[in-house]
Amino acid sequence: MRKQIGFSNSFKLFAFFFYQWDLVCSKAGLNSLGSSIYMFGLLVGSVLFGAMADRYGRRFVLLLSIALQTVLGVAVAFAPNFPVYVILRFAVGTTISGVIINAFVLGIN
């Protein structure tokens, strides 16, 4: 049995995406762009799912957000290239806001 020396498996997977999509050296700024687009998804999701919750009910929107987050989260894992990855991460960011906002409001009632 070999003893692993060095980084954890999660770091190896994280590093795999950087090398697979060539996000090093001249394209290193794409990493920040991906994170920024994800955060913008959180912003859009808070507005979108907040308005939907007022109109259709918090429980329905919470369950919808969880279902979408599950499907999109799996899809992110199998993204074939960086643009698809970023688009799916934006969509996951929107659903995370839907879960957080509605779960918080339902939890305090």
TrEMBL record:
It is a multi-pass membrane protein. The keyword Glycoprotein does not apply. InterPro entries: MFS, MFS_dom, MFS_trans_sf. Keywords: Membrane, Transmembrane, Transmembrane helix. SUPFAM superfamilies: MFS general substrate transporter. It comes from the Eukaryota. Residues 1-109 form the Major facilitator superfamily (MFS) profile domain. The keyword Membrane applies. The chain crosses the membrane at residues 36-53, 60-80, 86-108. Pfam families: MFS_1. It is found in: Membrane. This is Major facilitator superfamily (MFS) profile domain-containing protein. It comes from Xenotaenia resolanae.
